[in-house]
Design brief:
It is built from 14 helices and twelve strands. By secondary structure, it is an alpha/beta fold. The protein has three domains: 52 residues, 434 Repressor (Amino-terminal Domain) (Orthogonal Bundle), CATH 1.10.260; 137 residues, 3-Layer(aba) Sandwich (Rossmann fold), CATH 3.40.50; 137 residues, Response regulator (Rossmann fold), CATH 3.40.50. Helix 6 packs parallel to helix 7 and helix 8 packs across helix 9. The longest helix has 18 residues.
Length: 364
C-alpha cells in the first residue's frame, strides 16, 4: 500500500482498508457494529501508517491546531544548523496528522539583539510551544520568564539553562564534552609545547552558551591536572567575518612560537582553523573541533583535522518535537533531560558514522 500522502483522512483509511467511512469511524471510536474482519483491516492500515487507533481518533476529534515555533540560528548551506532544521522538517511531516504545525524562525547567532527581536516577534504570534537553541544566556532567561508568565511551554536543544523551567532538553552535556576534548587532546602531547585555544568574537561582547560550557569543561580538565604548568595554553579570539585578519593572527603566532603542537575550537567551524593551518603548511598539528559538517569531514579525511566530536543534531530536533507533542496532545510521560552521546570521530570511522546516521534518519 502507498501511504505517501502527508495528510491521512478517514476516507483515505477507508479506501486503503476496503471498508466504508462509517466503519472506520466506529473502529476509531471503539464502537460496536463492526465485524472482526473489518476491524482487523482498519487496524492493519493504521499500524502500517504507525498510528494507534486511539491516538488517531483523538487527533481527528480535536479542533485544536498546535503551533510549535522552532527558534535557532540562521545558517549557510552545510552548516551545523541545517541538520537541526532537517530534524524539525522530518518531525513536521510525521506529526502533521495530529494537527501540529511547525514554524521556523531564525536569529543571528553572533548578535544577541537579533535573538531578542525575533523572540518578541514569536510572542506576538501566540505560540502553543517553543523549541529553542539558547545561544545567548541572559537574553534567553529574559525570554523564558515571559513564556512562564504566559504559561507557554518551551524546550531546549543544543544547550540548556538548567535553572529555567523547560519541558525537555536534547543535546550533549556541553561541559562534559569540553572535558572529554581536553582529555583527548593532551594524551599524546609533549610537555612544554604550545596549544592554541580558539574562541570566536561575537557582536556586542555576547557569548555563546554552548561554546562557553565546552570551554569551561576544557579548562576544568586543565585545572585538575595542572596543565598550565606543563603546557603553554595560548588563548586567542578570532573574528567571525574577517578571514584575512584571522589568517594574519595565526601567521603571527607561528612566527613567535616554534613548538605549537595542537589547536582546538569549541564551535562547529573547525574547518576554518584547519584551512588557516593548511595554508601555513602546519599540517602536523593535532586539531580538534565539533560537528559533522561537510567541510569538517573533508579536512578530517585529509588528516588535517585529527578529531571531531559529534552530537546527532537531527535527533535532537526530532525528539524535541515528539516530546512536545507527547505533552501537548497525548499526555504521555516524558524525560526532561536527554543527553546525546559524545561521539568521537576520526578519519577511519567517520564514513560509518555518517552512513549509519542517514539510515537512522529514514527510520524516524
Amino acid at each position: 500500500m502507498d501511504y505517501s500522502s502527508k495528510k491521512i483522512r478517514i476516507k483515505d483509511i477507508a479506501k486503503f482498508s476496503g471498508v466504508s467511512k462509517g466503519t472506520v469511524d466506529r473502529v476509531l471510536h471503539n464502537r460496536k457494529g463492526v465485524s472482526e474482519k473489518s476491524r482487523q483491516a482498519v487496524e492493519k492500515v493504521l499500524n502500517e501508517m504507525n498510528y494507534s487507533p486511539n491516538v488517531f481518533a483523538r487527533s481527528l476529534a480535536s479542533k485544536k491546531l498546535y503551533r510549535i515555533f522552532c527558534l535557532f540560528p540562521a545558517y549557510q548551506k552545510g552548516d551545523y544548523w541545517e541538520n537541526i532544521e532537517n530534524g524539525f522538517e522530518q518531525a513536521a511531516a510525521d506529526f502533521e496528522n495530529y494537527n501540529v504545525e511547525i514554524l521556523i524562525e531564525y536569529f543571528n547567532q553572533f548578535d544577541s539583539s537579533s535573538f531578542t527581536k525575533v523572540s518578541q516577534s514569536i510572542l506576538e504570534k501566540e505560540p502553543d510551544a517553543i523549541i529553542m537553541a539558547p545561544v545567548f544566556r541572559n537574553e534567553t532567561i529574559q525570554f523564558v520568564n515571559q513564556l512562564a508568565e504566559q504559561k507557554i511551554l518551551f524546550s531546549y536543544i543544543d544547550s540548556m539553562i538548567e535553572e529555567t523551567n523547560f519541558l525537555t532538553y536534547y543535546g550533549q552535556h556541553s561541559f562534559q564534552s569540553g572535558y572529554v576534548a581536553a582529555k583527548l587532546l593532551f594524551q599524546t602531547l609533549p610537555e612544554n609545547s604550545t596549544v592554541i585555544i580558539t574562541r570566536t568574537k561575537r557582536r556586542g561582547g555576547a557569548v555563546s552558551n554552548q561554546t562557553t560550557n565546552r570551554y569551561n569543561g576544557f579548562m576544568k580538565y586543565c585545572e585538575e591536572f595542572q596543565l598550565e604548568k606543563k603546557f603553554n595554553l595560548l588563548k586567542i579570539e578570532i573574528e567571525d567575518d574577517n578571514e584575512k585578519a584571522n589568517f594574519q593572527l595565526f601567521k603571527n603566532i607561528f612566527s613567535q612560537y616554534s613548538n605549537v603542537s595542537a589547536a582546538i575550537t569549541f564551535n562547529s567551524k573547525v574547518y576554518r582553523l584547519a584551512n588557516y593551518l593548511s595554508l601555513l603548511n602546519k599540517t602536523d598539528i593535532i586539531i580538534l573541533g565539533y560537528d559533522v559538517l561537510e567541510k569538517n569531514v573533508t579536512f578530517l579525511k585529509q588528516g588535517i583535522i585529527s578529531y571531531l566530536i559529534a552530537q546527532r543534531p537531527e535527533k535532537q530536533a526530532y525528539f524535541s518535537i515528539r516530546d512536545m507533542c507527547c505533552e501537548l496532545i497525548f499526555k504521555k510521560p516524558i524525560n526532561k533531560i536527554n543527553y546525546v552521546p559524545i561521539d568521537i570521530l576520526i578519519k577511519e570511522n567517520v564514513d560509518y558514522y555518517i552512513n549509519f546516521s542517514k539510515y537512522e534518519a529514514s527510520l524516524f
